[in-house]
């Protein structure tokens, strides 16, 4: 094992950027931090983090660990205590200099900082706060910063970091308390949810302070997020989506990220490594369902049930819901409510809004819908214009399913060979597992 004390900054950078790649809980900033003329950098709402902005730009941030040394021994983590891997840690000065030098070279627009746990949660969080304070107050850096709150750190340190960062996150990692006990015995539900509650309460109090005192400092202005690992433990999609919905409702989270389990350790408690690779399709379905929760007014219990606890691999969650609830269709475009339009496959929330605005000026037909941006190859089975369908179609589940499969999304090879009839049990070997809500982490 390499010793951090004898390493150059570049060697540390190589180790700690590579170690950060398994953390997916980063996204666009969601906040605006303007430059007041006394410092460098700025933060725009269009976002940071190797992603595409609203205007099509590809933007980036420095995604790095403060240290990959860790006192915990989480079985799924490459940086766990028992692994013999090169270890490195930055000093606050080194982290600040790296961030500023990368920014000056126009490599990044912000910083995503996570960390292992060095000595103790408080010790690690103290170092992170020291780095952020120097970056903000000495270097006058006013760009986007996303920082991880260390579970178990004191309330005072969480608050200090919250006034320095734009976004904070605490990774839930596993959806059930049983999963945490099995794979991350040093972590508990309370240690993870406590900082989430602190951030939520701090944001609520800060919102009032900003109304009364316009120059009050902002506390985590871009909100908080978390991450759950998909496929490391036997939780079903229903359990994971139920946990995500509860987090949105109770902790006011901005995003829940889903990370397909990648086998980096050999352990009897982990799924055996296979040639199939990470469950990426399952991750994709969870992201689609998460979008429906946040923007389309769906509830988790509508998309999945205890009887059908996993997503259909052949159809996206919205389309699968429509196929199981044909009693609500077809929908008349010129009369349906905005909420009902949101539930039509092929109709997004922007398209639904355009329809509601456009029909005030006249009656819409299918050509108008095409111009608006409706995906008619999906929507035509569920819509009518002036009481007529686009083509003669049958409102039958099998008929619609077969036709949708002909124009479906790209799927893995093992799924492409399936037919709709084979899905009567909605069961895929990679999606299996029982439902037990008693152990849910929230």
How would you portray this structure in words?
The chain has 442 residues and is of the alpha/beta class. The chain contains 16 helices and ten strands. The chain has helices at 9-19, 92-104, 121-138, 155-162, 177-183, 189-212, 237-251, 280-295, 300-303, 317-324, 338-341, 349-358, 366-372, 376-379, 397-406, 413-416, and strands at 51-52, 58-59, 62-65, 110-114, 144-148, 167-169, 224-230, 255-260, 331-332, 383-384. The strands form three sheets. It has a six-stranded parallel β-sheet with strand order 3-4-5-6-7-8. A two-stranded antiparallel sheet has the order 1-2. The radius of gyration is 24 Å and the shape is globular. Mean pLDDT is 85; it is low at 44-48, 51-56 and 420-438.
Topology, pairings included?
Elements: H1 9-19, E1 51-52, E2 58-59, E3 62-65, H2 92-104, E4 110-114, H3 121-138, E5 144-148, H4 155-162, E6 167-169, H5 177-183, H6 189-212, E7 224-230, H7 237-251, E8 255-260, H8 280-295, H9 300-303, H10 317-324, E9 331-332, H11 338-341, H12 349-358, H13 366-372, H14 376-379, E10 383-384, H15 397-406, H16 413-416
Parallel strand pairs: 3-4, 4-5, 5-6, 6-7, 7-8, 9-10
Antiparallel strand pairs: 1-2
């Amino acid at each position: 094992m390499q010793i951090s004390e004898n390493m150059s900054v570049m060697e540390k950078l190589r180790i700690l950027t590579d170690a950060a790649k398994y953390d997916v809980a980063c996204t666009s900033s969601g906040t605006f931090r303007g430059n007041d003329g006394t410092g460098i950098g700025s933060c725009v709402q269009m976002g940071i983090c190797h992603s595409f902005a609203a205007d099509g730009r590809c933007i980036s941030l420095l995604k790095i660990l403060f240290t990959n040394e860790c006192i915990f021994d989480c079985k799924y983590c490459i940086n766990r205590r028992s692994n013999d891997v090169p270890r490195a840690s930055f000093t606050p000065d080194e982290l600040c200099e790296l961030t500023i030098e990368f920014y000056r070279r126009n490599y990044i627009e912000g910083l995503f900082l996570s960390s292992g746990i060095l000595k103790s949660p408080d010790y690690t969080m103290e170092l992170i706060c020291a780095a952020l304070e120097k970056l903000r107050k000495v270097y006058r850096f006013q760009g986007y910063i996303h920082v991880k709150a260390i579970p178990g750190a004191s309330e005072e340190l969480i608050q200090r970091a919250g006034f320095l960062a734009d976004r904070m996150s605490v990774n839930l990692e596993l959806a059930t308390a049983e999963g945490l006990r099995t794979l991350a015995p040093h972590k508990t539900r309370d240690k993870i949810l406590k900082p989430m509650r602190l951030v939520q309460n701090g944001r609520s109090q800060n919102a009032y302070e900003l109304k009364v005192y316009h120059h009050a400092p902002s506390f985590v202005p871009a909100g908080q997020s978390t991450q759950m690992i998909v496929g490391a433990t036997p939780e079903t999609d229903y359990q994971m989506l139920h946990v995500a919905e509860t987090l949105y409702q109770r902790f006011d989270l901005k995003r829940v990220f889903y990370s397909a389990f990648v086998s980096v350790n050999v352990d009897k408690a982990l799924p055996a490594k296979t040639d199939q690779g990470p469950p990426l399709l399952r991750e994709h379905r969870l992201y689609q369902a998460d979008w429906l929760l946040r923007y389309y007014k769906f509830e988790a219990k509508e998309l999945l049930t205890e009887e059908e606890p996993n997503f259909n691999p052949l159809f996206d969650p919205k389309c699968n819901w429509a196929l199981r609830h044909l009693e609500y269709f077809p929908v008349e475009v010129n009369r349906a409510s905005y909420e009902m339009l949101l539930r039509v496959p092929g109709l997004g929330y922007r398209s639904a809004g355009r329809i509601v605005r456009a029909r005030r000026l006249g009656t819409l037909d299918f050509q108008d819908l095409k111009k608006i941006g409706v995906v008619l190859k999906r929507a035509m089975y569920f819509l009518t214009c002036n009481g007529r369908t686009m083509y003669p179609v049958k409102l039958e589940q099998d008929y619609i399913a077969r036709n949708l499969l002909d124009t479906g999304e790209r799927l893995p090879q093992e799924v492409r060979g399936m037919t709709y009839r084979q899905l009567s049990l909605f069961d895929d070997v990679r999606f299996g597992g029982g439902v037990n809500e008693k152990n849910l982490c929230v």
